[in-house]
Amino acid sequence: MWLADRLANLVSGLGGPRDKSTGNLHVHVPRARAELDAAYRDNWLARKVVDIVPFDMLREWRAWQAPQEIAAALAASEERLCLRDRLLRALRLARLHGGAAILIGDGAADPGLPLEPETVGQGGLRYLHVLPRGQIQAGGIERDPLSPWFGEPKGYTLGYAIAGGRTIHPSRVIRLLGAALPEDEVGDGWGDSVLQALLEAVDQATAAAAHIAAMLPEAKQDVISVPGLSQHLSTEDGTHRLTERFAYAARMKGLFGMLLLEGDGRSPEGERYQQKQLDFSGLPEVARLFLQVAAGAADIPVTRLLGQSPAGLNATGESDIRNYHDHVAARQTVELTPAIARLDRLLIRDALGRDEPSLRYAWRPLAQASEREKAEVGRLKAETAAMLARDGVVPASILSRGVEGWLTSADLFPGIAAAFGRPAG
């Protein structure tokens, strides 16, 4: 016996055969790559939806928690390999097309062989190349839970136009995905474009603005009632004379700000002039509503998506931006950090020539405090440290190390980190 737990109303038709939404059914229709590319190139909102999140994820970059000389060597390797730029391009392509790859080059003759980290010496990485989804084909997904490559493609094949279909071992590829697929939907080893689920909301938002813009030329219309208009238009000569007459009247209005008409406007022989205007009072709210829907679908606050201040009494937008920064920080930790973990191990060997399993880094916060805010926080912490030292709650040696760590990472006094012999940030 089937039990249907749904609301039904025989009078209104809700949930019954008269309900207009009864036949709604979600059908997946993949967006063609040409359509995605066209939307990205021609629709400003679609471009922002794709670009903003990767840019914000990498905007403040990361800080290695290591001694100064080691942090400087790691930063030099990142700069030499253009790591930040390569990640930004790959993340944008992944969001647009559903996936992208970063090819790790160490100069090996056969890229089909595994890239063992132990074989990479100092300066051993040659390049990091970004490959769009269309230039690299993912092989079958590894389904053996005992394999270290479980859940990843068993291998990759470069496009024939690039390298004649050469096979690439997965250890040489950093795979970045767009929107995740359902667990049982393997596909071709990649994900969905973020625009797959957002493009309808994006199109509606831009169409709403376009429709309002199309109404602007019609905002004011002059209406003149002409007695016997159909008789005038029944002959070619009458049509020509009527057209010339009102063309001349329009020129008079443009030159002198006045319109000359025959008669008093009330008698049958007189012409009557009216001016009709469209009411735009509710249209901005309608356009704003569609933009809010698109922003919500993209998980980007309207204040960040449109670059405008929040509207409304006492509205600051701080909570929206704070939530968005937390969202970006979570994606950095949950998605990006594991995706580049294998590359980071190779980067450490490229910079130092050896493994350093204890090395860690932290993503810098997106919200940067002003100088006044830094000074205020510094004052409070200094007072707290002085109180702890005065009361003897914390041993002086331990407290001094804590104060030293705070001063070198707080960016209050330029050069103090170098004086302490520790990396800044």
Automatic annotation (TrEMBL):
NCBIfam families: phge_rel_HI1409. InterPro entries: Acb1-like_N, Phage-assoc_HI1409. The lineage of its organism: Bacteria, Pseudomonadati, Pseudomonadota, Alphaproteobacteria, Hyphomicrobiales. Residues 35-385 form the Anti-CBASS protein Acb1-like N-terminal domain. It comes from Methylobacterium frigidaeris. This is Anti-CBASS protein Acb1-like N-terminal domain-containing protein.
